[in-house]
Design brief:
Number of helices: 27
Low-confidence stretches: none
CATH class of one domain: Alpha Beta
Bound molecules: iron/sulfur cluster
Strand order of the largest sheet: 5-4-17-16-15-6-7
Number of strands: 26
CATH architecture of one domain: 3-Layer(aba) Sandwich
Strand content: 15-25%
CATH topology of one domain: Dimethylsulfoxide Reductase, domain 2
């Protein structure tokens, strides 16, 4: 008789974190649907959620390590792979020092409990400042601006979606992406609920996205000019004297007058020709934001991936503050994460603050931000001789060759490395350069808790998932792979016991907490706490998570709050625990030296001068022949991966160059013909899709495609290869405050192929 069970788990694919109900018959997954009882997602899933099954059974997914010999990857045992890793890393460290080891941490790591608890251990073991990640591809500006304003890069205000009456979205398309830096399963449903209660959605985007199509109003802004529009909104709001601040926020604000003075040049009239949004509209939107009772501005990818990414991200919060909507029900609010967040750590209401530039990259002197350098600078750090030149890379769950600017240059640089390790489940466009590929188990074989993404959730919730399927015999768990890699990098050799690395990782956390007077375990005996955590037999990320839950704001404090949460209680709640709607957190959430929201950080005020100098040069006419490239996202896509799942890529080619009918006519191109797109760094040929959902002068290619290269093993993706938009993006173009890549508004020339 077959053994049938239905288990729940959180989908780890995107930031929405939907609950899944998974039917398993005799260790075979037969069906995946939305978990109707999930406290947060209530049954919602997108087309990707059910494909965890196809991902698990994908024959191209690596189950055993691969070692490259004579240019060809061959499957080897784990023992053999570890020996090759030890030999390769030791050789590079001995010859060139630790600074010659670079790391790149990919986006899936943010959705992965093992990576979130053990990547830190790996970075410390390597001991190099040559650290890069997907953060500088699309999100770090928001973290830097939040750090400067509120003292912690984790204190990102999110729109209070379920209670707001007015939502202004810039550069985000949650109908395709499901939200980002704003964790909200069924984001579209939450928008539609707002509209049903009489609320209004306004979308600012060069494309009439699916989200814009749902909006009461679409403002087709010129790419890369969000900061100008936001500055004009803030300028307009300040004209009335900001009386709204006196009532509630004023006491917590520092630097208002300085910001108002610095915004003076950015009147709606002054920026109108730059943004393409007329002054009257800007003034009306400012008034609507101020007068709607509750309103939130939410900016995402488009605001971050411009050369003013940090300034635009800051201005989003300035506008939320100037309308009196920060930290107010229905406005932009701070989540209170249940475990492991930087915004609940340390003394309430005051802190050391936040700064960047504690170091500078070796070649172009980019300032460090959040302990890393710009991903766009990786290639030059590999290519350029001298002390600290990167000779070896460790890439964890990332595909930077498709995801970062000027891919061609990075691919050539990676080919020249002396040694490379990829922790990846696919032989893809990046791991093909690795000497060793270490495959983690599939998503269904891991436990899960959204340690990072619940920091940005629109409700305070917690949801833990046990592995659905067992590990294959003699296969390490993902945390064990990262722990072993750490041990080898630290010089402990291939026989190092990962259990010792685990004990050390937990011990360091426990020691820190017991010495921190702001925690609920201050002064407690470390060994006693470790023993208590170990009683269950848990190891690795689960034991660390239990600790983080217990010392968190809703935690049991190891007995001091007996009704509080711990991992046992979460396991007993398979649909999650809802800790309620967001509540105002000022001033407790602040970690700035002044104990106030530091509105006028010098770097941001100075950047307004740079913004002003761009006003004059960015008044290009719509009739100009010059075009700019923007990206786009599709619901069935997930950055550069998941393209090997047939059900997600079948049908009409989605990797098309969208172009406005007027531009198509001017260029003499017709639908489905190929055009050539050229930028400073590269050329691609792409099929044309003519659509009036994009403004004139702008073309759009989705990112994450370009799977036709040799040496990979993703057979389905190859059949739907598309072209790589990052062959066109320019690694020299960065947001100087955060190091984020500029991925939108790339100047291009589009030509008909005769
Ligand atoms: S929206 Fe995101 S979390 Fe939800 S099912 Fe889709 S991929 Fe998974």
């Amino acid at each position: 008789m077959s053994n049938k069970r239905v288990v729940t788990r959180t989908c780890p694919l995107c930031e929405a974190g939907c609950g899944l109900a998974i039917t398993v018959v005799d260790d075979e997954v037969t069906h995946i649907r939305g978990d109707l009882d999930d406290v947060f997602s209530k049954g919602f899933i997108c087309p990707k959620g059910s494909t965890l099954k196809q991902l698990h059974y994908d024959p191209d997914r690596l189950r055993m390590p691969m070692v490259k010999r004579n240019g060809v990857h061959q499957q080897v045992s784990w023992a053999e792979a570890w020996h090759v890793v030890a030999e390769g890393l030791t050789s590079v460290i001995n010859s060139h020092g630790r600074e010659s080891i670079g790391t790149y941490l990919g986006n899936p790591g943010a959705h992965n409990l093992s990576a979130l608890t053990f990547n830190r251990v790996l970075l410390q073991a390597i001991g190099s400042r040559q650290r890069f990640s997907a953060s500088t591809v699309d999100q770090i500006p928001k973290q830097v601006s939040s750090g400067l304003l509120f003292g912690s890069a984790s204190s990102v205000p999110v729109p209070d979606l379920d209670r707001t009456q007015y939502l202004l979205i810039l550069g985000a398309n949650p109908y395709e992406s499901n939200g980002s830096l704003c964790t909200a399963p069924d984001f579209p449903g939450r928008i539609e609920a707002m509209q049903s209660r009489g609320g209004k959605l306004v979308v600012v985007d060069p494309r009439k996205t699916r989200t814009a199509a749902q909006a009461e109003e679409w403002l087709p802004i010129r790419p890369g000019t969000d900061a100008f529009f936001l500055a004009a909104l803030a300028n307009t709001l300040a004209e009335g004297g900001l009386q709204v601040l006196d009532e509630r926020l004023g006491a917590y604000l520092a630097g208002v007058d300085e910001v108002v003075a610095a915004l003076a040049p950015f009147t709606p009239e002054a920026v109108a020709s730059t943004t393409g949004i007329d002054a009257r509209t800007t003034r009306r939107i400012a008034g609507e934001l101020r007068d709607s009772g509750s309103a939130a501005v939410y900016g995402r990818l488009g605001t971050c991936t411009s050369s003013f990414g940090t300034t635009a991200s800051w201005l989003v919060d300035v506008v939320n503050i100037f309308t009196g909507n920060l930290d107010r029900v229905g406005g932009a609010m701070f989540p209170l994460p249940v475990a492991g967040s930087g915004n609940t750590r340390g003394q309430s209401g005051v802190g050391k603050g936040f700064r960047t530039g504690r170091g500078f990259s070796r070649v172009s002197r980019h300032p460090e931000a959040l302990g890393e350098y710009p991903a766009a600078a990786m290639a030059e750090e590999i290519e350029t001789p001298g002390d600290g030149q990167i000779r070896a890379m460790i890439v964890v769950c990332g595909n930077p060759v498709l995801s970062t600017p000027n891919s061609d240059r990075l691919a050539k640089a990676m080919d020249d490395l002396e040694f490379m390790v990829s922790v990846d489940m696919y032989l893809n466009e990046t791991s093909k350069f690795a000497d060793v590929i270490l495959p983690p188990p599939s998503q269904l074989q891991r436990s899960h808790y959204d340690l990072a993404l619940l920091t940005f959730a629109v409700r305070n919730v917690a949801n833990y998932s046990e592995p659905v399927l067992p590990l294959a015999p003699d296969t390490p768990d993902e945390w064990e792979i990262l722990a072993k890699l750490s041990a080898i990098a630290a010089g402990m050799g291939v026989d190092a016991d990962v259990g010792n690395v685990d004990d050390l990782a937990l011990g360091t956390l426990v020691q820190g907490a017991t010495k921190d007077s702001s925690t609920n375990v201050y002064g407690r005996d470390e060994q006693e706490l470790v023993a208590e955590l170990s009683k269950s037999g848990r190891r690795g990320p689960d034991r660390i998570l239990d600790f983080m839950l217990r010392i968190g704001p809703f935690g049991d404090g190891f007995g001091s709050s007996p009704d509080g949460v711990n991992l046992d209680k979460l396991i007993a709640a398979p649909h999650g625990i809802d800790f309620g709607a967001l509540e105002p957190r000022l001033p407790e959430v602040l970690r700035t030296p002044s104990g106030k929201i530091e509105l006028a950080a010098p770097s941001l005020i100075n950047d307004l001068s740079r913004l002003e100098s761009r006003l004059a040069e960015s008044t290009k006419s719509d009739d100009s022949d010059q075009m700019v490239l923007v990206g786009r996202r599709h619901l069935r896509s997930n950055n550069s991966w998941m393209h090997n799942i047939e059900v997600l890529v079948k049908g009409k080619d989605r990797c098309t160059l969208q172009i406005n009918p007027d531009d198509a006519q001017r260029l003499g191109v017709s639908p489905d013909t190929l055009v050539r797109v050229k930028s400073r760094v590269g050329v691609v040929d792409a099929p044309v899709e003519i659509t009036d959902s994009i403004r004139r002068g702008v073309v759009s290619l989705p990112h994450g495609w370009g799977h036709s290269v040799e040496g990979t093993r993703t057979r389905v993706a190859k059949m739907h290869a598309g072209v790589n938009s990052n062959l066109l993006t320019d690694e020299r173009e960065l947001d100087p405050l955060s190091g984020n890549s500029v991925l939108n508004g790339i100047p291009v020339v589009v030509e008909r192929i005769i």
